[in-house]
Amino acid sequence: MRIVRLANFIAPRSGGLRTALNELGAGYEAAGHEAVLVIPGPEAGRRDTPSGQIITVPGPVVPGSGGYRVITARRSLRRLLDDLAPDRLEVSDRTTLRWTGRWARSRGVRSLMVSHESLDGLLRLFAPRFLPAFPGSGDARAERIVRGLADRLNRRTAADFDMVVCTTEWAAAEFRRLNVPNLMRVPLGVDLARFSPARHDPEFRRRFAAPGEPLLVHCSRLSPEKRPDRPIEALRELRRRGVPAVLVVAGDGPRRAALEARAHGLPVRFLGHVSDRDLLARLLATADVAIAPGPIETFGLAALEALASGTPVVVSRASALPEVIGESGVAVGDDPGEYADAVRLLLAGEERHRRDRARRQAERFDWPGSADGFLRAHGLANLIGGRR
Predict the structure, then answer these.
(1) Predicted confidence band at 147 (pLDDT cuts at 50, 70, 90)?
(2) Which residue of 56, 97, 259, 312 is surrounded by the most CB atoms within 10 Å?
(3) What domain of life is recorded for the organism (predicted)?
(4) Strands 88-92 and 110-115
């Protein structure tokens, strides 16, 4: 079967979505299917990869996004889809690409929408200041407006596609409240071989922290919805309390300059985007605690990679991450003091115990099992045999 996948908001340095697309494509290929991924880029191109063929179509950069591009030319994309003649269509963008579900239905092609973000959460996060619709605002009318808009758009998405896939129950909640019948939950996975406690490297650690200094890490795109300021403020609070922690930030994005200014005077090291996955694995395995504060994360691959590396994670209670980390980390509110409390709590535990617990939680997820789940959502046979 030819599975054509469409995705927007892909940048050369994007992380979680690109990882998921690559790993699932490799899983489809391993199962005997043909995977084709269509993404936006600066110019047209085609290349073969272990994850299948990748087709780049010209797409403009979204202003202020730090390099994210989108496919906007419907006519040429429609022609490309007709030429590719997919047996299955998989879409990873609920905004500008939602119309492709209707295209698939008109051609008799089974379609699947992957919900990589909480629309309800995005609307709340980016609501205009005159509409203070965010958790705890107390504005009941604003809450109704935002929820009503999210419900209308989600209802249309479910109607346009044969199947909607969410990676966590948290992400599925906004569809479940609509009693959507074509909903399926399939968790993502982690590379358990690459991200491993065995990557812990004392020599590598000395590059970032002196003896006795707890090493914290934040691995994320530096954009507003990820709340990358929270690890910095947590570090500030920890040092105010006498904890000599240091922070390494792995990632890039539109907020980097502002964050560097905010971190002035604090022991924070900005690495930028880390394209070397083995280097990232060493960093995660060497850190004492990872911080993943994004309040609208629907899965959190970076947090799962930290767990697989044996490093516990402090996460936002408002996100899906408490569901992913289980008891191998701590979920907190939005206050930097809560993050500092959680870091101290984790550091107070016996190191070997907390690392073993983190690894065991990550071992519940793998990419073969995730690919199996997506193939089931496509109505295709399971040929890989991963964990479920």
Answers:
(1) confident
(2) 312
(3) Bacteria
(4) parallel
Confidence of residue 133 (pLDDT cuts 50, 70, 90): very low
* First-residue to last-residue Cα distance in the chain: 23
User: Cα separation of 258 and 70, whole Å?
Assistant: 25
Q: What gap in Å lies between CA 218 and CA 291, rounded to an integer?
A: 5
Predicted TM-score (pTM) of this structure: 0.89
Q: Which region holds residue 297: left if phi is over 0, alpha if psi is between -120 and 50, else beta?
A: beta
| One fold for 2-116+161-189+366-377 and 197-362 | yes
Burial class (CB in 10 A: 0-12, 13-18, 19+), 35: buried
Give how far Cα 235 sits from Cα of 64, 176, 250, 285, 344, Å. Answer: 27, 38, 15, 20, 11
Element (DSSP H or E) covering residue 21? helix 16-30
Residue 353 tokens read as: 């115990």
Instruction: Return the CATH architecture of domain 197-362.
Output: 3-Layer(aba) Sandwich (3.40)
| Rounded CA separation 108/118 (Å) | 29
- What average pLDDT does this structure show over 206-232? 95
Least confident of 4-13, 98-107, 223-232: 4-13
CA atoms within 13 A on the CB side of 23: 23
Instruction: Answer positive or negative: Cα dihedral of 98, 69, 315, 233.
Output: negative
CB atoms within 10 A of CB 131: 16
Which residues touch 72 (CB under 8 Å, ≥6 apart)?
59, 60, 96
Give domain limits for the chain.
2-116+161-189+366-377, 197-362
Give the CATH number of domain 2-116+161-189+366-377. 3.40.50.2000
C-beta of residue 235 within 8 angstroms of C-beta of residue 336: no
C-alpha separations of 165 from 112, 151, 205 in Å:
7, 16, 39
